[in-house]
Amino acid sequence: MAEIVIKGVAKRFDTFTALHSVDLTIADQEFMVLLGASGCGKTTLLRIIAGLETPSEGEVWIGGRRVDHLPPRHRGIAMVFQNYAVFPHLTVFENIAFGLRMAKVPQAEVTRRVTRTAELMHIEQLLKRYSGELSGGQRQRVAVARALAMEPDVILMDEPLSNLDALLRLEMRAELKGVLAESKTTTIYVTHDQVEAMSLADKISVMNGGRIVQSDRPTEVYRNPAARFVGSFIGNPPMNFLPAQPDGAGGWNVAGQRFDGPGVAKAEFAIRPEDLHPAETGLRAEVRVVEPLGPHTLITADVAGQPFRAILESDRPTSPGEVITLAPTPDRIRWFDPETQKAIA
Ligand code: ATP
């Protein structure tokens, strides 16, 4: 069992607070993605779990054991970083074997584990090659194989695919997901790429300004953002937001259109671009830009003076300057508190 529990972990660098009392539980064998913009504290949190950074406050538990006072090598974890430290002067075999040699694992066991993980990562034919001769994608596989060979309870990955080109990323992403599910490790994976996060994660923890804003299954994070920030960060293009005023009759006025909404004093209206469709009644949108995307067309419009995007079926031609009426799918409308920025249930 390698459940990871983070309790009230804070990190201050001099006067700057990189993490504000983070609480997070990652279940045994779960694939957790830490997602957020540059500087939000993802790497700092990962380094604290790894033992490469000391928390200013709080506790880290792995598999029921408190580890925040233990050195990295006693935590049962393996790591894969963005600038994967593969040694060019060593063969692929020796690179994968590196941690096992450090841990004085017997030769027969080293051979068994290196062969097995090389097969898992489809690099068994490269074992005798020097790592300096490999492509970026092959080196990335070696780095992952080296981590897997340790048969760790926990694997920590910090943007491991960010040095690969787009096609290779896609391929490695699918492969990683399969391999890690098979290896039964608990994984924490840091990325700022929301598509990567959605595709890999059992759960996503969205971070902003040193805090975890939401931690949930990808579909839940996408469909039901707990805060305005999550709706605006996840989704490409992101969620649309419009101001709303109570209409005095129990409903809300949004860009001149009446909607049912929550029974509160103030609220902001939100809808995802794909949850809109042309209709007789709805939001009046002046089309500014039309971008055909193949199966869909992305429309950037102006709704009540606000920028607003819709993803429409490609068979409904429209052009800049045209005024269209867009109806939001009722059960996809979300509401946020304009002050706290949190979702209103
Ligand atoms: P990125 O995606 O750019 O790596 P991140 O979300 O991983 O960003 P962190 O590397 O965790 O962000 O950094 C969080 C904040 O803490 C940043 O503002 C960073 O400048 C600051 N920080 C990180 N390490 C140190 C340090 N050793 N000394 C001072 N400030 C630091």
Describe this structure in words.
One of its GO terms (cellular component) is ATP-binding cassette (ABC) transporter complex, substrate-binding subunit-containing. One of its GO terms (molecular function) is ATP binding. It holds the Pfam family ABC_tran. It comes from Roseicitreum antarcticum. Keywords: ATP-binding, Nucleotide-binding, Sugar transport, Transport. The chain is α+β, with helices and mostly antiparallel strands. It has two domains: 230 residues, 3-Layer(aba) Sandwich (Rossmann fold); 97 residues, Nucleic acid-binding proteins (OB fold (Dihydrolipoamide Acetyltransferase, E2P), Beta Barrel). The protein is built from eight helices and 20 strands. The strands form five sheets. It has a six-stranded mixed sheet with strand order 6-7-8-3-9-10, sandwiched between helices. The protein has a four-stranded antiparallel sheet with strand order 2-1-4-5, covered by helices on one side. It has a four-stranded antiparallel sheet with strand order 18-17-16-19, with no helix packed on it. α2 packs across α3. The longest helix is centred in the middle third of the chain and has 18 residues. The two termini are 35 Å apart.
